[in-house]
């Protein structure tokens, strides 16, 4: 799952001395300068018998408005559940507006935001056949849309059908999972695009309230995939016609959309037709949510540290490094560090560059200076990355592509450029709507130029992902260096390696393509379950050391600042975001 923010961005070089000076190592809160990087959990527990209503949060009160500042984050372009594949959009919608087959519930005993997979619209986590090529979900009969009408098995099946349509939803998660694993993969193109309207991949029985999904190949992770909004219902027929539906969705969660201005603001209000008895994990404490996208980072930091009326019932999804010391002192346990299975990457254009050029870029990137320029805290929210799979992911291989950790070494980069057949020229774009991204690009450009590259960096007012994920975009065709921030969709190498390196994958922004790698990615899911984690880790190492198509720059944690009247300030470890489901305003 991609991070909405296009580049890892942090300010204040003096903060280097604050990073990783000790700490609990167990995710507990510590004093300023004593935090350290937290690895995400390798597994997510499951509770197939969890039922609604969700247990009350201790001390929770109803009422009030929660304001969420998202510094430098443009947010989702639309709210169509089938299209949701960003951390920002999914974390908001999955928690508040749009339900699916399964979902995550925060473990109340966890200090690090660990989550449990539980049912959502399904009564359990699904019933697979022996070889995981068919899954049946019984849909509960007490869940409704915002107009009070019941959610039917047919509507769930229709929503799942939509996920097969890569033409209408080219950046949606169905391109990676539905179109790779469901029956008819590569043949059935979805309900809006396919010439063949008949598809046997999803069947429903409204009388029995069941949905059955048939697979093209074994897929034991269907219960995890079921937590994505693309595995939830959509209104039948023209009511859910894209792209219009993305601007006017029909809610089935505890909140519904009051207003939505892409790139600016999303306002949610209570959905009075949501039935808490039908929902094992969500709450409906606040009266209203206001999400402010592309918030100014410095201004947001000042608001959150002021403890004024505006900040008391607000939270921020980032605290800049220049405010880190004050934030730790002032906010205390309201400055929450959340681990996440996320990695930031540079992605050179594979066809137009050679191995030495790509390694030169890896040595020319000014890692810690770039993090600090964008507001991150080295050692706390960012640490150097050595692999595609992040720490905490089962099977991760601890290797170094060049025999050592890549660090900023301009002289080494120059040596590699001298051996390269690719011109020492870089063409890239950055998100100029965010001042931190602008500051980060300046530092990156200076580092590259110090290493002997000439750099053509152009700003864009829309998220660079709009360019990077469109192979037909003329600007994209002129680039030879792109980026991507990627978080696992569930704790498996299946959700890290293929989405970034499979030929034609949406977020393979460098257009890497090697048949041997594709073949191995097809083979691993057919192995015994206990062998798959190690196999993904080995493939990560093999493709990186042989081809080095993608440059890992950082493993990620996040810092969230919560106002003094936000109850239960916690994070969501399943997605690396604030735990919106369980927050409330203290009255």
What fraction of the residues are assigned to beta strands by DSSP? Answer: 15-25%
Shape: globular
Give average pLDDT, whole number. 92
Query: Biggest β-sheet: count, sense, barrel?
Result: 9 strands, mixed
**What fraction, in percent, of the residue positions are helical?**
10-25%
- Termini separation (Å)? 36 Å
Number of strands: 22
What class, by secondary structure content? alpha+beta
Task: Report Rg.
Answer: 23 Å
Number of helices, counting only DSSP H or I runs of 4 residues or more? 16
Show unreliable segments.
Answer: 7-33
Task: Please state the oligomeric state of the protein chains shown.
Answer: single chain
Protein name: Peptide/nickel transport system substrate-binding protein
Pfam families: SBP_bac_5
InterPro entries: Peptide/Ni-bd, SBP_5, SBP_5_dom
Keywords: Signal
